[in-house]
C-alpha cells in the first residue's frame, strides 16, 4: 500500500515529491527546473516531467524512482498516458505527435499535427484494454490494431471511420457489460447553416467492414459551438455538454449550455435524454460518481448564482436530491465516490460544502468552509480522506501555496506558502489499495460542545424595542401588507433553496420541462426558441425575395411595353414616310380618318375617350395636309 499523503509540486525551482506532508516538507526527490509541466498516470505509478533537456519518465512505483529520458523531446508541450500506462503521447509544434513506449522510452510512431485544440486533445486515444489505438484526422478516425504486433505502429491503419466534419472524439474508459464492443462519442461542428451533430458509436473489429462501426445514439444541436464528453466509470452512458458563445435569449453574457445523456444500453427506452436542470440557466459543472460498483449517478450545478446542485440517477436522469442554492461552480468526487465537495472556485469566494453521498448529509454542519485565498487547483487524496486546494501561477502570481482539509471540511490541517507554484496534486493510486471508510462519528461530548457554541453565537441579546400588539407578537416582520408579503417571499425562497430530496411530483415536473413538450427531439427550450427565430428570419428573407422578384417583373414588363410602343411609333413614322412618297395612298388614308372624325362629332362629347378626343384635335391638320397634296 502506497503512502496516501504523497504530494507533487511544480514551482519555479523545479518539480519535487513530498513523501508525507504532515510529518515533513522535505522532498523525496526533486527534478531541477524550471519545468514546463508534468503529467501523472491514472494509477500514479508513472510521472512525465518536461524539463529543459527534454521529457523525463519517472517510475514512482520503484524504490529509487528510476527515470528514462526521451530522446529529442525538448519541444514537448502536451502529454497523455494510455489507460494501462503502456504508451505516452506527446505533441510538439514542429514535430507533431509522437507515440512512445513507456517501458523502453523508444519512439514507436510519429504523426503530423501542426496545431491542437483543447476540445480535440488528445488526438490519439487507446481503448481500455490497449488493444486498439484511435487517431483523429480530417473527417476521419483511423484505428490501429496494436495487439496484433509490436511493430504495428509502422504500418497503415487497419480500420477507418469516416465522418464528415468530425472535430473531436472520446473513447469509453471501460468495456460496457464486459462485451467485445468498444464505444466512443464524436462531435461534428455545424457549418454553412447546418446544425452540429454528436454521435455515440460502437466498434466491433470482428464484424464485416460495412458493419464494424454502428451508431448507438445521435443528436443535432442548433446552438452548439463546443462539446465536451464525460463517460460514466462503467461506460454505460456518456454525458454530453454543449456550449455556445451567444445566448439568443439574452439571459447570459457567457452564452448558453445544454446537457444530454447518451445511453449505450440497447435495451434503454431512449438512447438520448435531455437532463432536467434543477435551476434554469447555464451548467457550471457536472461530474459522475467514480464508484462503478454502485448504481450510477451524477451531480449537476446549474442556474445563475446562487446556483443549484442536484443529484441525478445515472440511467433515467431523474432528479434525486437537491443540495441547495449557493455560490458554487465546481463538483469534485472523492476517489471512492462516498464524499462529495461542492465548491465555488475561480472567480467565486472559495466556499466549500462537503457531503456524504450515502447518507445525503452535509458534514460541515457548522457553516460553509471558505478558503483563505483564491483557489485555482484542487484534488482529493487517493484514500478519500483529504482535500487539497492550491493557489497557482500564472492565474495568481501572489500568495501562491496550498492548504489541506479533511474529508468533512475540518481544517486546514496543513498549509504551505510557496513563492511561485505552478501545479500541486496528490499522487493517485488504485482505490482498491485503500478501504472505503465512512465518516468518523463525532464524539457525543464534542458534538454537544459544538452545538452549545453555535447556540451561544446565534443567540441575540435581548433588547427593548418598540411596542408590538399581542396579535402581532411572535411574527417575523411588521403588520403592514408589504412586511407580510416580504416575509412570505423570503420564506418561499428559503424553502426552495434548502437541501432536500426531490419528491415524485417535483421530479416529474422537472423531467417534463426537460423533455420539452411541443419541442422537436434533440432541442432544449433554448434551442426551440432559437429555431423559431431562425424560421422567422427565413420567412422574412423569403418575403423579401418575393418582393424583389415582383419589382423585377414589373420593371421588365414596363421596359417591354416601352419597347413595344417605341416600335409602333417607329412603324408609324415609316408608314407616314411611305405615304408621303405615294400621295394617292396618303389621301385615301386621310379621307378615311376624316370620315371617322365626322362620325365622332355626331356622338355626345362626354361619351368620348381620350384617344377619340385626340383624334378630333387632328382634324384641321389633316384637312390642311389633304389640301397640300394637290390632288
- How would the global form be characterised? elongated
In the predicted model, the low-confidence regions spanning at least 5 consecutive residues are: 457-464, 517-527
The value of Rg in angstroms is: 40 Å
Please work out how many helical segments DSSP would assign.
7
Q: Provide the helix percentage.
A: 10-25%
Characterize the biggest β-sheet. Answer: 5 strands, antiparallel
Task: Write down how many β-strands occur, each being a DSSP E stretch of 2 or more residues.
Answer: 38
For the termini, the CA-CA separation is: 136 Å
Strand order of the largest sheet: 24-25-26-27-38
Explained architecture:
Helices cover 22% and strands 33% of the residues. α4 (525-581) packs across α5 (583-601) and α5 (583-601) runs antiparallel to α7 (619-628). By secondary structure, the protein is of the alpha+beta class. The relative contact order is 0.07. The strands form 9 sheets. The chain has a 5-stranded antiparallel sheet, covered by helices on one side. Strands 28, 29, 30, 31 and 32 form a 5-stranded antiparallel sheet that branches. Mean pLDDT is 82; it is low at 457-464 and 517-527.
Amino acid at each position: 500500500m502506497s503512502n496516501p499523503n504523497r504530494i507533487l509540486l511544480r514551482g519555479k525551482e523545479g518539480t519535487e515529491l513530498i513523501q508525507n506532508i504532515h510529518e515533513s516538507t522535505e522532498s523525496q526527490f526533486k527534478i531541477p527546473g524550471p519545468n514546463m509541466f508534468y503529467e501523472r498516470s491514472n494509477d500514479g505509478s508513472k510521472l512525465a516531467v518536461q524539463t529543459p533537456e527534454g521529457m523525463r519518465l519517472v517510475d514512482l512505483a520503484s524504490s529509487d524512482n528510476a527515470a528514462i529520458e526521451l530522446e529529442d523531446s525538448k519541444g514537448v508541450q502536451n502529454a497523455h498516458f494510455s489507460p494501462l500506462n503502456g504508451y505516452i503521447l506527446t505533441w510538439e509544434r514542429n514535430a507533431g505527435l509522437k507515440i512512445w513506449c513507456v517501458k523502453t522510452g523508444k519512439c514507436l510512431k510519429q504523426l503530423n499535427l501542426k496545431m491542437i485544440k483543447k476540445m480535440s486533445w488528445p488526438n490519439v486515444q487507446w481503448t481500455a484494454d490497449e488493444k486498439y489505438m484511435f487517431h483523429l484526422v480530417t473527417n476521419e478516425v483511423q484505428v490501429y490494431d496494436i495487439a496484433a504486433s509490436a511493430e504495428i505502429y509502422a504500418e497503415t491503419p487497419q480500420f477507418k471511420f469516416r465522418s464528415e466534419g468530425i472535430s473531436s472524439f472520446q473513447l469509453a474508459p471501460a468495456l460496457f457489460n464486459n462485451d467485445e464492443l468498444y464505444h466512443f462519442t464524436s462531435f461534428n461542428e455545424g457549418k454553412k447553416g447546418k446544425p452540429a451533430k454528436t454521435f455515440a458509436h460502437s466498434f466491433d473489429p470482428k464484424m464485416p467492414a460495412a458493419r464494424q462501426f454502428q451508431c448507438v445514439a445521435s443528436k443535432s444541436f442548433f446552438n452548439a459551438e463546443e462539446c465536451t464528453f464525460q463517460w460514466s466509470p462503467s461506460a454505460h452512458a456518456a454525458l454530453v455538454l454543449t456550449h455556445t458563445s451567444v445566448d439568443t435569449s439574452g439571459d447570459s453574457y457567457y452564452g448558453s449550455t445544454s446537457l444530454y445523456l447518451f445511453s449505450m444500453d440497447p435495451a434503454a427506452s431512449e438512447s438520448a435524454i435531455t437532463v432536467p436542470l434543477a435551476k434554469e440557466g447555464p451548467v457550471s459543472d457536472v461530474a459522475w460518481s467514480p464508484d462503478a460498483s454502485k448504481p450510477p449517478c451524477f451531480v449537476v450545478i446549474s442556474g445563475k448564482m446562487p446556483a443549484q446542485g442536484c443529484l441525478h440517477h445515472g440511467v433515467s436522469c431523474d432528479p434525486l436530491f437537491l443540495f441547495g442554492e449557493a455560490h458554487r461552480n465546481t463538483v469534485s468526487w472523492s476517489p471512492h465516490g462516498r464524499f462529495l465537495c461542492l465548491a465555488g472556485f475561480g472567480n467565486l469566494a472559495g466556499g466549500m460544502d462537503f457531503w456524504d453521498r450515502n447518507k445525503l448529509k452535509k458534514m460541515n454542519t457548522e457553516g460553509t468552509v471558505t478558503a483563505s485565498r483564491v483557489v485555482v487547483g484542487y484534488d482529493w487524496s487517493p484514500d478519500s480522506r483529504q482535500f487539497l486546494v492550491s493557489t497557482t501561477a500564472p492565474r495568481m502570481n501572489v500568495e501562491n501555496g496550498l492548504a489541506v482539509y479533511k474529508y468533512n471540511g475540518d481544517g486546514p490541517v496543513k498549509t504551505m506558502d510557496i513563492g511561485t507554484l505552478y501545479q500541486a496534486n496528490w499522487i493517485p493510486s488504485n482505490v482498491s489499495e485503500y478501504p472505503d471508510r465512512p465518516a468518523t462519528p463525532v464524539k457525543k461530548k464534542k458534538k454537544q460542545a459544538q452545538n452549545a457554541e453555535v447556540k451561544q453565537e446565534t443567540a441575540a441579546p435581548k433588547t427593548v424595542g418598540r411596542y408590538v400588539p399581542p396579535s402581532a407578537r411572535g411574527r417575523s416582520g411588521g403588520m403592514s401588507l408589504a412586511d407580510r408579503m416580504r416575509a412570505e417571499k423570503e420564506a418561499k425562497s428559503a424553502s426552495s433553496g434548502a437541501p432536500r430530496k426531490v419528491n415524485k411530483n417535483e421530479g416529474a415536473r422537472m423531467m417534463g420541462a426537460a423533455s420539452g413538450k411541443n419541442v422537436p427531439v434533440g432541442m432544449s427550450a433554448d434551442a426551440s426558441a432559437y429555431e423559431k427565430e431562425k424560421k422567422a428570419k427565413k420567412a422574412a428573407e423569403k418575403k423579401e425575395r418575393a418582393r424583389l422578384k415582383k419589382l423585377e417583373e414589373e420593371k421588365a414588363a414596363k421596359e417591354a411595353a416601352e419597347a413595344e410602343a417605341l416600335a409602333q411609333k417607329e412603324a408609324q413614322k415609316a408608314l407616314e414616310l411611305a405615304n408621303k412618297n405615294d400621295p394617292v395612298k396618303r389621301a385615301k388614308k386621310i379621307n378615311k380618318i376624316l370620315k371617322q372624325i365626322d362620325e365622332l362629332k355626331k356622338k355626345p362629347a362626354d361619351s368620348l375617350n381620350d384617344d377619340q378626343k385626340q383624334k378630333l384635335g387632328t382634324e384641321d391638320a389633316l384637312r390642311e395636309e389633304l389640301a397640300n397634296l394637290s390632288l
